[in-house]
Amino acid sequence: MRAILLWVWLFSFATSYGQNAWFKHLPGWRAKSTIVINDTLLTCGMNSWDDKFGHKLGTFLTWNSIKGDSIDYYKISLDSLEKDSSRSTTISYKYASSVLIGERPSFFLALSYGDKKERAFLFTLDKFHTNNYELKEYTIDTFNTYINNLVYNPSCNILFIPYVLYTKPLETEVNTVIYRERNGIRVKINEINNSSSYKYETTCHIKNTKSDKSFFFIKRQMWDYAGAPRMWADYIIKMDTNGNQLWQGYPNNRDSINTEGMQMVQKPNGNLLVSWCDYWYRPYKNMIGSQQPQLNRRNTVWFAEIDSSGKVLWRKNIKNYLSGRIKDTTQSLEHNKAIITRNGVIWTGNYSYYYNHSYLLKTDFDGNPIWYREYELYPNNTARQEFKPYDVSATSDGGYVLTGEYISDKGNIFKNGCQLATIIKVDSFGCLEPGCQKADSATTKISLLQKSGFKIYPNPNSGNFTIEIENPANDVSIEVLDMMGKHVANVERVEKVNNLDLDIADGMYWVRVKNGGAFYNQKVSIVK
Predict the structure, then answer these.
(1) What pLDDT does residue 341 have?
(2) 438: phi then psi, degrees, rounded to nearest 5
């Protein structure tokens, strides 16, 4: 079938930092996912415009080289399927929006808005770069329907198709049908239904790399709700391709905690590595016994390993590692996506500290941290700004590409503010500014360094503070670094007592003193 596409050549350029690290804004307001084959990136996302029928949403595809050069751009339109000018072609905004079926990219689309039901479609290109496609509809009866994900196996595809029921005013229930599709024949193998007591949703659907006869996903069970669930539990489900549940695992063993951002990957040995944040206490089970959910101010990121039988082998957290790396350790690192790489696992997501901070965390296959990165695209932007990642993909040069949206309030760079579809290409160390890994010793090895070699006072301060060094040597130096290890300032002439007056943003910083071959590190808090 010939694609219903509008073709436009895209004249845009990537902001490059050298060594194949760059970021780029795309012609839309949200980029949802990126598929990588060889040295080409294929990104899908959302855009919008106003026409004589009002405000409409659309879906775009854009091809870029691994160096950030524009190759092609398409705007997808399914308008000809219905004679309704109010309908929009949208990409799935749920867990996933695209998948690679062999070498054919597939996208989860919907005809939505207007007074009609939302129709779900799988839009599959004939090859990686083409304007020919195959379109299949997965709408369930008369219900609003969308595609949550597709698990590709050589023997069959497994599709997760939720549909929406309106049961009470302002309240909906979402049931999920699981289909097996083989040789063009679609068979319903299971259905996860809500009940009067529980609601369910599924995320993180992955294939079993050790067998094409089973797959894994996370099922969230939610209960005790008054308009919205207030307690939930995330279970790992292993299911065979006939829809039989083989086992159910429960990584979090604390009955008082609601888990956030649970993601998982399959390790080379076939076991699952799972990660989550213990951000919320459940009602009545928090420290003050409140009937409302309460924040766990001591939250952190947890890891667990589950073997092939569903048994949890171990659990641990990385609270000590994250201390000093994120701007507020009381905030939740909520994973959005995790991918397996040749020598470890990449986790991406965001946490909120005045605004959303995006991150990449690399661990080994046992959940031990290797490096942690945050990204600020416009350091000179005086307005509130944030990047929200929805996807991460590995690239052929050993690096990674983050896919999401960049948002800025009105300010000195974006006078009217902005919301821009954006991709960020980083190197194999997660660096947007190449060489950032050289500063990892200021953070990744902080537990091995002494902290008593100098004093900082007052602390916190507004940027004006004193550093007093104990027994300064001839080759003493002072450097101020941000939490990512990036150089901020240094003292030209170091004395025993040094007064600093820095005009820098609020936040936590490292002060690093080299004194006679020894390194000393302390954190300083800037609050204006």
Answers:
(1) 94
(2) -65, -25
Pairing mode, if any, of strands 5-7 and 15-16?
Answer: unpaired
- CA torsion sign for 432, 344, 483, 298 is positive
Q: Per-residue pLDDT tens for 141-171?
A: 888 999 999 999 888 999 999 998 876 666 6
**pLDDT at position 154:** 85
Rounded-to-10 torsion of CA 292, 297, 298, 302:
60
What Rg, from alpha-carbon coordinates, does the chain have? Answer: 25
Which residues contact residue 456 at a Cβ distance below 8 angstroms, ignoring those fewer than 6 apart? 465, 466, 467, 511, 522, 524
Give the chain's length: 528
Token digits for 471? 């027994």
| Spatial separation of the C-alpha atoms in residues 507 and 462, rounded to whole Å | 10
Residues with Cβ within 8 Å of 162's Cβ and at least 6 positions away in sequence, in order, are 94, 145, 146, 148, 174, 175, 176, 177, 201, 202
Which helix H or strand E contains 259, and what residues bound it?
strand 257-266
Which positions ≥6 away from 292 have C-beta within 8 Å?
Answer: 230, 283
Whole-number Å distance between alpha carbons of 104 and 123: 10
The residue assigned the tokens 């609003």 is 144
Query: How does pLDDT run across 487-506, given as a tens digit for each residue?
Result: 899 998 899 999 999 999 88
CB atoms under 10 Å from CB of 51, counted, come to 8
How far is it, in rounded angstroms, from Cα 11 to Cα 257?
49
Intervals of the chain under pLDDT 50: 1-13, 442-451
CA-CA distances (angstroms) from residue 483 to 216, 361, 436? 36, 14, 12
Q: Sort 346 into a burial class: Cβ within 10 Å, 0-12 / 13-18 / 19+.
A: buried
Do 345 and 273 contact (CB within 8 A), yes or no?
yes
**Rounded distance between C-alpha atoms, residue 31 and residue 49, angstroms:** 16
Cis peptide before 460 (omega within 30 of 0): yes
Classify 138 in phi/psi space as left (phi over 0), alpha (psi -120 to 50) or beta: alpha
Cβ neighbourhood burial of 195 (10 Å; 0-12, 13-18, 19+): exposed
User: Counting runs of H as helices and runs of E as strands, what totals does the chain give?
Assistant: 1, 40
SS3 call for 321: helix
* Residue whose structure tokens are 């300083």: 524
Residues facing residue 478 across a β-bridge: 513
pLDDT the model gives residue 330: 66
Q: Is 139 helix (H, G, I), strand (E, B) or coil?
A: coil
d(CA 125, CA 122): 10
Distance CA 79, CA 110 (A): 11
